[in-house]
User: What shape does this take?
Amino acid sequence: MKLLLRHPRRGGLHLAAILVLGLAMLAGAALSPETALAQATRGDVAQETPTGGSIPGNSLGSASDTEIWRQVRQGVQGTVSIPDAKAGQLIQSQGESWRAWRNGPLSTVGGWAMLGTIILLALFFALRGRIKIDAGASGRTVERFNGIERFAHWLTAVSFIVLAVTGLNLLYGRYVLLPILGPEVFSALTTAGKYAHNFISFAFMLGVVMMVVLWVRHNIPNRYDLIWLSKAGGLFTKGVHPPSKKFNAGQKIIFWAVVLGGISISLSGISLLFPFEFGFFEATYRFLNVFGAGLPETLTPMQEMQLSQLWHTVVGLFLTAVILAHIYIGSVGMEGAFAAMGSGMVDENWAREHHNLWMAELKGEPMPKLDDHGDGKPQPAE
Assistant: This one.
């Protein structure tokens, strides 16, 4: 204070120097590249809006990259130095469509289809009850299926049930089981189910092949099938038994659904088991385009996988609904039906009512005549 009072001019100079130094420091900070860029970005946006493809200040190059990112979003394929060429595609937009279909309409419609099947079967049972042997059991049996035939049936049936349960868990498990079991148990269960699904699928494929070899000659449509279908197999009317050979029209529908659906779901399953190795859909699309379908004939490996997964799910849900009906009619729905694939032996009266033409052939009897309503008149075993 004494110094400043004695030399007021010198004190003023010192104070002015301090102020100038502080302003210089602030100015230096304000003019640093980062701050200058921030200020330019905040203050001059309106004046430097990109025009004609140019970037303000050329900070990102001499041309706008809007078009580049548009192409990336549309799935443009670039090049990479690593062996996996698929990595050259930054964004695969079809994946969004795949996810929307899988978690949306496919899951919803599939769930309602299975639930609807169960409700219809329960309603049918409530109204019709169990279909009895009208003439009563005779106490005498005939062999309907031998050991090899029963093995083929149960190999296909058991493997399909495992595949259906594990597949449904992948589709609906996170919504149904995860909240109940918790993440740890659900994760372990789903992982085990995945491995079971992968390996047991080969047993199912073998079963389908055996079914074709053993039964395809018995499942060729014939004129009796039209009569059977016109009367709905007598399922809704007591005492009505349309003529039938070893397999009736309803069983033939089940057979061809399992065989054709089994082949289709096996092919899509192989594509999923060995990813990016097959192009089933590309070949299918080219075939359908012969008839003017207008489908894309060039698909990326990722698109093939997505289409295979969707188709695998569609066929799996369809077969599950079909097999639910088959299980019903072969167990609680019809008296004597389970024995055909259980012991292989069926009651003679059951055979005469539901497969009278086959029974006549088996016994070397004359073919039953058709009455005015097209029904083969079953003769009860004496």
